[in-house]
Each structure stands twice: as C-alpha cells, then as structure tokens.
Amino acid sequence: MHTIVLATFNARYSHASLALRYLYANLRELRPQSAIREFVINENIQQIAERILAEAPRIVGISTYIWNAGDVAELIGILKKVSPETVIVLGGPEASHLPHRVDFSNADYIIGGEGEIAFYELCRDLLSGVERNNRFIKAPTVDLSAIALPYDDYDSNDIAHRYVYLETSRGCPYLCEFCLSAIDDKMRYFDIDVMTAEFEKLWQRGVRSFKFIDRTFNLKLSYANRILDFFLAKDEPYFLHFEVIPDHFPEALRGRIARFAPAALQLEVGIQTLNPEIADNIHRPLRLAKIEENLRFLEEHTRAHLHLDLIVGLPGETLESFAQGLDTLVSWSSGEIQIGILKKLSGTTMARHDDPFGMVYADTPPYDVLKTTHVSFEEIQKMKRFARYWDILYNSGNFTQSVALLWPEGKVFDEFRDFSAWVYDQTAATWKIAQERMARLLFDYLVDVRHCDKEDVGRAMAADFSKGHGKRLPPFLRPYAPEERSDGEAARGSASTKRQAQRA
C-alpha cells in the first residue's frame, strides 16, 4: 500500500520518466509511503486504474505530455468514477498551460511549471488536512542547488532495460516560437562537480547509455568540456546522446568530439529550417555559413552520429523552400534527418501566426498542422507519408547505397516524393511494412519505373543487406550477392544493432 502513487504513460517501455523520479526524490519524509508506477501508452486503461487503486493511494500524481494526454484524461475519469475520494494531481507540459485542449476536468489539482517542491508541499498539506483553494498551482522556478537529484532512483531494471535520462541544465536562451523551452529563456546549470559525481555513481552501477535532455548542451563551453572529459577518460564502450545548437562548435569542443569512438556519440542537431526568412518569422537564430561549416566538420572529422531535424509546415514556408533545405542537408551530412510535422504546443506563441499564414491545426494531440496558406491539407498528408518512408529507408541505415540511387543528380526531395507517392499507391500503408517488402518495392521502383540498371541496383541492395550484421538476403537479391555470400548469408560484422552503427 502506498499513500502517494506517481504515475505516467511513457511512449515506450524503454523510456523511464525522469520527471517522476524528480518528484519522488523530493518528497522528503513522504518518500517511504510513495511509489513510482510507469505504464506505456495504449495499454488497457481500466487495468491500469485497477493496478493503481490496488495500492489504496490517497493521492495520485500523473505526469502529462502531448503523447499521453488522451490516456491520462481517460485514466483520471475512471479513477474518479471508481474512487472519488482519491486526489488526482496533474503536472507536466500538457497540463501546465491553459486553456487545456484535452479534458482534464476530473483532476483535483494541476501544477504548472517545475513541480519538485510544489508537489511535495501540496501532498504534505493534503495529508495534514490543510485545504488548498486554488485548483491550478503555478509553481515557482526551483533553485537547482536546493532540490534532490533523481539518479539514485533508477533501479536495476531501469539500468538493464531502459534509457537513463539526465539533465545538467534547464532553460534555453533562444526564443524559437514552436518550442516550450523558449518560455524559460534563462539558462540555469546544476553544479558540475555534483553532476560528474552522479555520472560516476551511475557508471559504477553499470550504466553505459546516457541520454542528456539539455536543450543547448554545447552553449557553455567549459561545462560541456567537463562532461565530455569525464567520458573520454573511460575505456569501456558507452553511448552518449546530446542535443546541440548547430552554430557553436569552438575548436576546444571540436577536438574533444573528434576523439570519440564510432557509435559512442550521438548529436541531435536542431535545424528545423534553412530558410532565413522563415527562421526570422519564428525567432529562430540561423547562421547558415556557420551551420554548414560545423556540419561539414562533424561529418568529415568526427565519428559522431548526427540526427538532424527539419519541420514541415512552419509559418510562411512552402514545400519548395522545404525541398531546398532537405537537398542541402543531405549534401552537408550523411546523418539521420528527422522530418517532423509542425505541432502547436500549448504555452507557445505560435497562435500569432494563425491568421497571417492560414495555420489550421488538429484539435487533438499531437496538434499537428493540417494546412497553411502555403501548404495544402493534401500536401501535408503526403508529407506525413514521405516522412514515414524516409525513416524506414534513409534514417534506418538499412538502405544506404540503394536509396541514394533515387537521386543521382542530387534532387533528393523531388525524387523521394515521387517514390513515396508510388509506394503508397502500391501499399495504401505506412506501417507494418516489413523490411524485405520495402526492399522489393525499392528494387521494383528503381528498375521498372526509373529504369536503373538491374545489376547495379541488385548489387547495391545486396551490399546494404550484407552490412546488416547477419541479415539473410531476400531470394530476389541472391543472384546479386558477392560470390563468397552466394548462400544468401549476410556478413556477420559487429553484434551492434544500433542505427548509429548501421549508418557508419
């Protein structure tokens, strides 16, 4: 039995909620009567309610995000019908900003902002019989030196089976309008000595995969260098993920990044758009020459895996402008390029663009754009399919040589758009397309529609499969396999299955 249950729906089982662990770490004397319970979106909501209520909690705190808002609303509705005396407290980005676009009316309290202290104080008051009159509680910004850190609350199962998330700073100095981080425009840092001590404790417990959620990891050079130096001193294989700004890679930082082994370092680089006019519309800094210089350096002189972001549907941007951005990025980097559809997040200032640019959004999560003055609803739908097939073929690293045959003259967007339209005509599907089937589709399109040389296509695809670490060649590719692989077996290679290694 637990008096307080902290719960959320993660997007995948491999994810672990850092937010819940922060709340739990700061419950002080209430910790012994509290527990974290994590679920995954699209589980049976009634069974989850049953599991929560089996612990007879007086308070249930739920962390709410754009990906789980619908599940949260359904859950709290069931909890209140079955156990109306249980106090429901919501927090997280999707609950923090009014007006709510999902019905959270069954929640007793909602905490907006950083909840570590505010949630503890609310629970303390409620359990002591102190009434709170305000349903919506605006939490003040916390002192990072005064809160308990959550990393001891990753358990052995988390370490063995889940990502371990960390943060060394909060806030973002930039004002990009599509991003909630722009609300907190002052950078605050945790003490670096304290953080490296936490890294060491996690390392000693066996953690080898560290995912940092800082928005601008490389902004403060001395801080970033200390963190990189910590890991560079380690000998065993490990994996690090950082979000970085694309125009700030001084020499000292470059030198450190260049020292990391292949598949050890992943950098998520927020590009979003390469059109200066569009970037100016949404208050996003865009120093194109510096971005190109840095991406080319990372591509040519480091073994870091790059994950670049582009957004479809930004205010004022046409598909032609987006196409130029995609073609340019492919010429600058061989890293993954994540193509996302613009979302209108609660709390951002994106609404000011609605009338000038005809922005129309879905009313349900993830609130993706449906059309703009410059991009029609039909084109947005096509771009969603484009993005899905792009992820399967380009970002996966499974078709590195063969997918490039689509654009011999560098017209990446135009050629892949035509291919994605053809694939959808053949399949009427974007999900549950097996890799072998997608390979056959790509082969047929290149040979029958684009009239590429069958031998060239077959050899490229066989080479791609051989790079896949033990993947058996599909029957239609076996005639194109190298002689030493004529039995259809792919090269064994490394045991790693990471997309980083696939694209190396």
Automatic annotation (TrEMBL):
It comes from the Bacteria. Residues 466-504 are annotated as: Disordered. Gene3D superfamilies: Cobalamin-binding domain, tm_1862 like domain. Residues 481-490 have a biased composition (Basic and acidic residues). It holds the Pfam family DUF4080. Its cofactor is [4Fe-4S] cluster. CDD domains: radical_SAM_B12_BD. InterPro entries: BchE-like, Cobalamin-bd, Cobalamin-bd_sf, DUF4080, Elp3/MiaA/NifB-like_rSAM, Methyltransferase_Class_B, rSAM, rSAM_horseshoe. PROSITE patterns: B12_BINDING, RADICAL_SAM. Residues 494-504 have a biased composition (Polar residues). Keywords: Iron, Iron-sulfur, Metal-binding, S-adenosyl-L-methionine. Residues 158-381 form the Radical SAM core domain. Residues 1-133 form the B12-binding domain. PANTHER family: ANAEROBIC MAGNESIUM-PROTOPORPHYRIN IX MONOMETHYL ESTER CYCLASE-RELATED, SLR0320 PROTEIN. This is DUF4080 domain-containing protein.
